[in-house]
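Sample intake sheet
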Amino acid sequence: MNPSNINSFFSRCLEQATSYAKYDSFESFLESCPDPVDLTDNARAVIKRRYAAKDPDDNLLEDEKAVFARVAWEIASVEGEFRSYWAAEFYRAMIEGRFMPNSPVLFNAGLNNGFSYSACHVLVPQDTLESIVEVQKQLALVQRAGGGVGYTFEHLRPRGSYIKSTRSRVDGPLPFIDSYCSTTNAIQQGSKRRGAQMGILTVTHPDIWDFIHAKEDLSRWQNMNVSVKMTDDWLKEFMENPNSPCFVFHEKWGEGYLVKEDDKVVAKRVSADAPNLLTKKELMDAIVSRAHSTGEPGVLFWDRVKKDCVFPEGSEFEIQATNPCFAPGTPILTTEGYKPIEKIHKGDIILQDSRVSYVGPELDNNNPLHWVVNPQKEGNLEEVEVEWAGVTRRNAEVWEVHLDNGLSLTLTEDHHLATSRGMVSVADLSEEDEILCNMGSLLEVDLSSSENVKSLKQGLLAGLSELSGGDLRDFVSTDLLASAMSSLDIPADVSQGLAHVGVFADSVTTLPKLEDSDPYFAYGYYYAFEGNPLPNARIAKTLQLKLMEVGIPTSLTASNELIPLPNTVCRARMVYKGRFGISDVYCLKTAGNRTVVAGGIVARRCGEIPLEDGGSCTIGSVNVSKFLGDNGDVDWYGLGETIALAVRFLDNVVSLNRFPVEKIQKVNDETRRIGVGPMGWADLLFKMGLSYDSPEALALSEKMSAFFREAADSASVALGSARGIYPAASKTKNGLDRKRNAYTTMAAPTGTISILAGCSPSIEPVFSLAFRRRVMVDMDGNPTELMEVNPVFRCVMESYPEDKDDICEHAAAYGTIQNYEPKSIPEDHWRHIKKVFVCAHDIPPEVHVRTQAAWQSHFDQAISKTISLPQDSSKNDLLDTIVLAWATGCKGITVYRDGSRDGKEGQIQPMSLKKDNEGASVWEPIKPPKVAPSTRVTQATPLGNIHVTVVFDPKTRRPIEIFGDISRPGEMPKADVDAICRLASLLLRSGAGIDVIYKQLKGLGSSYSLPSAGGRVLSIPDGIAKALELAIPEILGSSGPTDSVTVSSRESLHVTFYSLACQNCGCSLNTSGNCEFCPSCGFSICV
């Protein structure tokens, strides 16, 4: 689209605006706005939860229509007498899903809250203490207003440099980075999120080795992501002569080389022929190794970044650094039990839940979708030392969260909790979320200690006293008391002592309060009330927490009854969330996986945009899937008009933006940087019948990249003619720029805003063609699930009714249709369908790189995209991908190897036949999947109720694991149940059928038996067998010792499928690389 077309568009708009109705108030404009009827249910839910204004009691003050109208009316205020017309145009573009601004605009526009409309900023510390401290102050101001900050630290002199004025040596940039991170930890970001940072260091800085390895300490720089700046010269020399030494330089330090000394690498002022010099290959290997294991550091190709910089080197507007946006969390479970967080200090040992792992790159560590839950992992509590603890904010607003199992927390809105689909902030929790709980402890019930037994007796006595209304005489000779004494292994003399009712009755008054007691007192109290409601909710909650300290998990009902659970690990739904009040808040800092167990609940951080010192970014995205013409080609004219409208909208945002730091305000006003980019790319390719990994799609990527740049620049030129060019235009490389904005195009991750537009996110492929969404829960708590299918794919499959349901089930289960075997689809049709409807995991890494490069070819700012590698990729594969990104013209790259972090295991692998030491063949048990369906059965046994959970392979529906727990206390029964279930699980995962295990357990007798409706239960093993009958009715009819039972109907087994779930729609997520997206609504936390 050339400038004449854009001028024609704006001229036509001006004519229409002249005669358009004028509204004298927002209320009258709002009344004129049409209802946003095309919004999806997901979009409406996100708007209400995330963007709609609320009163202090969390009541909605505006609906979806009012949110978009508020934004449109505010952004159009720049238009003067034509405000009403442009507000209506902006409003229509948003409700029709053609254009969406970034989240800060939707959050803040029109609310007069003093926060800026930009999410990211860059500040560059110079090599003086005054500058370093000033930047730290500016950092605090920016993050308080809701922004994230990026830096380059290359100006700071390296470790060991001599300071003449103080006659001392400095420690280099790393301690100052520590300081910046501490400041960020203490700043609340505009009540929406807490701050994060991006740090960059050039590959030739003397401290580069320490910088690369700094985050091996997982507690360090948790809110800062790091990237290494590389030049073309350095990379060319690495390619041509990888064994050349690593030259380093700093103007205050001089030049030298990296030298290997013992087990460390240091920078020294030596010549190129000195011994033990570190080679470029060794340095690159270190970068690749870290990225291979953690996804970080990223790599920035600085010459490519500078190529599109319109300002010359040395200019005040020269590109400096990049910036992301995200945040962390807080804990309270220690090795000594539960402690109030205000009583936790440096050096204390707390417990982390190892079932939760961060599997994305550090670049997106606050993305809740990058945290993965592995419920099959053994040993789910790990010790970690507290490195810092204390007050982080005074008079902060805190919220209450209550779960359906009785657990609750009071914490800030921006705090993240672990859910079955990743980390989610309190602000974004919904009643469909399954929140991860850990009721375990490193402490175990130990009745060999006389003190513990004494506490347990006292608790039992206190409970019986409360239950009897203070009169124990009714309990002296009861079976309950005798059973309690026996089951709790309390000596007979203690039981006899209870006969002295008067003495005991008096001593009840001297018993400790439950709140001040130890877990053994609570244990006894719990046993007294087992099966009966507790006196009140306060006692019930206290007791539940105390029991968790010794690993006894319970669920609290509405009637204040504690129900024993089979496992210490479980999930629970939120039943209430709301503002609680104002309070000082605390936090702590640790290493490890950055999770903590707070009150039994597991608690806990987008793309990069190069900016100048003081730069900020104002971003909006156009939904390209809306612009498919009737001829099957792109509607280029309609797309161009929407891009032009987006440029005008974002230019208005720049005019309205107000920043807390003068330097940022100056750069914003003088450069007027904006970024218009695409979303809905995968959806458009589906509609056009093009495969994401086809040459035609790559060619269209480059063509559309050029079109976006041409249309955006043309619109900016038109606005420059009408409104004036940006003030810094005379300082550009080419003299005088005629545009209104120094930069115009970029591809952001989109994420949440793509939900509002109803399209796939950014330029990413879809992650699944179908998914299940939970829409309601019945009176018994059983969920109802609906299948949702990509609309284009669903339309295609309507022609094949015999396959439609099966293929959608297959896509929902596996995230791909490539291995589906059709029943009725003709072979040539099926080949075309498989070719077009590819998903993220079907696409080779090279195609991801070339797609990013194609879009980057004409955009003047960065492309946000992560390159995903398979789990078995080698370090050489990763290096090849980095080199390909550089060679194809990408500005930077984040490479993430699937499963590179603990907790993200791959799909279940086939059984393998291996040889033992004597050459005999043995089965190797398969690894269980991280998410699998299960069914839970409770069965009475002579020693108490046993709770058996059978886990099924999500693909084959074959039983693969059995978990069991017994509700009665005592180590022997628990150990027996655990041993039986462990061995049974190993057999199942080694190929044995469930019937083999069933037949071995059924009928085993013991000295105790118990009558039941299903026949007499002879022992714990016989009870497990009867539980298997209930869980798998087909087992009763199985034949043959090697037959395996395949469950064909999960409805018949009441199996609930658990998976990573989208916080907006609750459907299953597919994980892939830097961002995990919802395959239905495209959700991502990235933008």
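Comment: The domain at 120-325 is CATH 3.20.70.20 (Anaerobic Ribonucleotide-triphosphate Reductase Large Chain). The chain has a mean pLDDT of 75.
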